């Protein structure tokens, strides 16, 4: 009787371990993927028809003498909450920018640079600042002006005290993973496969400084690997203990 029990126990133990490993993996992945933060509004925003990831565009800004002074390569997705004129309820809209339809412009000054992207009735402005003492730059402002079909009127979302995309003069800032940048309560910008250099451009991107997310990404395989190794050990131990017990006449569950 006990040999039969043993044979049933071992596979179910292995399946349990596998499920545990999968759930650990999912937990880890969930930690890294920016979770969808739905702002607490009175009426829950209608769930948006989420488009796929946006296409990556290349946007350059040239200075008055036609020298490229800002380089940007990124896919952009806008997440906007607004009160729909048709339903009177707060709705959330997720929109991708389409590089082929985007017109880009901007300006470069010694300690500030802007990139302006316009597609249809949407204008998105990035403002970068350079601290010439520390030679560090960052994305200090984002402004979205949008007139979407169901908006009652053109709406502007602006934040000039941001601190995103921190990089060193002469280097580019890179973030391959999707990153969600919260701008205001009702607007956040999702960036994909991003590389920017707002200052000190010398023909092409300087050496890349990667975002935390990309660095963290390297940790996941290590953590998962370690967790799996521990689980394998547990399974082997459980098997050995189970075998000893069944020899001794115990029935494990
Ligand atoms: C444009 O950039 C180049 C290279 O940095 C510089 O030599 C030139 O003076 C700039 N032009 C203006 C009008 O700032
Ligand atoms: C705009 O409102 C109409 C109803 O008037 C609705 O059918 C449509 O889905 C809405 N569009 C968006 C983008 O929410
Ligand atoms: C842009 O806005 C105008 C006026 O608000 C509207 O008539 C037009 O349909 C909009 N275009 C798009 C592509 O949303
Ligand atoms: C620039 O960096 C220096 C050194 O890190 C810091 O003391 C200063 O406050 C910064 N200036 C601005 C305008 O942020
Ligand atoms: C602007 O961004 C900062 C930093 O993310 C945030 O603390 C602040 O509340 C934002 N301001 C507005 C008007 O949303
Ligand atoms: C932007 O600049 C880069 C590097 O100078 C160049 O390879 C690329 O073709 C430019 N793209 C556009 C759209 O001008």
Topology as H/E string? HEEEEEEEEEEEEEH
Oligomer: single chain
Bound molecules: 2-acetamido-2-deoxy-beta-D-glucopyranose
Low-confidence stretches: 1-44
As a percent range, the share of strand residues is: 35-45%
Provide the CATH architecture of the domain at 57-214: Beta Barrel
The CATH topology of the domain at 57-214: Porin
Give the biggest beta sheet. 7 strands, mixed
- Average pLDDT number: 82
Q: Count the E strands.
A: 13
| Radius of gyration computed on alpha carbons | 26 Å
Shape summary: flat
Overall CATH class of the domain at 57-214: Mainly Beta
Classification by helices and strands? alpha+beta
Number of helices: 2
Helix content: 25-40%
The separation of the N and C termini measures 14 Å
Detailed description of the structure:
Residues 45-54 have a biased composition (Pro residues). Residues 35-58 are annotated as: Disordered. Its main location: membrane. The protein has 253 residues and is an alpha+beta fold. The chain has a domain at 57-214: Beta Barrel (Porin), CATH 2.40.160. It has two helices and 13 strands. The chain has helices at residues 2-32, 212-247; strands spanning 56-62, 68-83, 90-96, 103-108, 112-119, 122-131, 136-146, 155-159, 164-168, 172-175, 179-184, 187-197, 208-210. The strands form two sheets. Strands 1, 2, 3, 10, 11, 12 and 13 form a seven-stranded mixed β-sheet that branches. Helix 1 packs antiparallel against helix 2. The model is unreliable at 1-44 (pLDDT under 50). One 2-acetamido-2-deoxy-beta-D-glucopyranose (NAG) binds at residues 120-121, 147, 149.
């Amino acid at each position: 009787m006990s040999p039969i029990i043993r044979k049933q126990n071992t596979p179910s133990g292995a399946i349990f371990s596998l499920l545990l490993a999968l759930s650990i993996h999912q937990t880890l992945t969930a930690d890294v993927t920016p979770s969808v933060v739905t702002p607490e509004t009175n009426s829950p925003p209608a769930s948006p028809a989420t488009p796929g990831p946006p296409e990556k565009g290349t946007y350059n800004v040239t200075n008055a003498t036609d020298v490229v002074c800002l380089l940007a390569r990124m896919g952009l997705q806008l997440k906007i909450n607004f009160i729909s004129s048709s339903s009177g309820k707060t709705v959330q809209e997720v929109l991708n920018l389409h590089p082929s339809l985007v017109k880009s412009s901007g300006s470069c000054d010694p300690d500030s640079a802007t990139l302006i992207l316009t597609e249809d009735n949407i204008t998105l402005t990035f403002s970068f600042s350079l601290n010439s003492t520390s030679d560090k730059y960052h994305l200090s402002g984002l402004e979205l002006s949008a007139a979407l079909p169901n908006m009652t009127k053109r709406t502007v979302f602006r934040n000039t005290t941001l601190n995103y995309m921190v990089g060193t003069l002469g280097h580019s800032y890179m973030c391959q993973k999707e990153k969600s940048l919260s701008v205001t309560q009702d607007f956040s910008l999702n960036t994909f496969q991003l590389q920017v250099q707002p200052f000190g451009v010398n023909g092409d991107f300087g050496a890349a400084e990667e975002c935390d997310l990309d660095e963290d990404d390297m940790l996941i395989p290590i953590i998962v690997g370690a967790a799996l190794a521990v689980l394998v050990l547990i399974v082997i131990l459980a098997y050995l203990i189970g075998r000893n017990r069944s020899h001794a006449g115990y029935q494990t569950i």
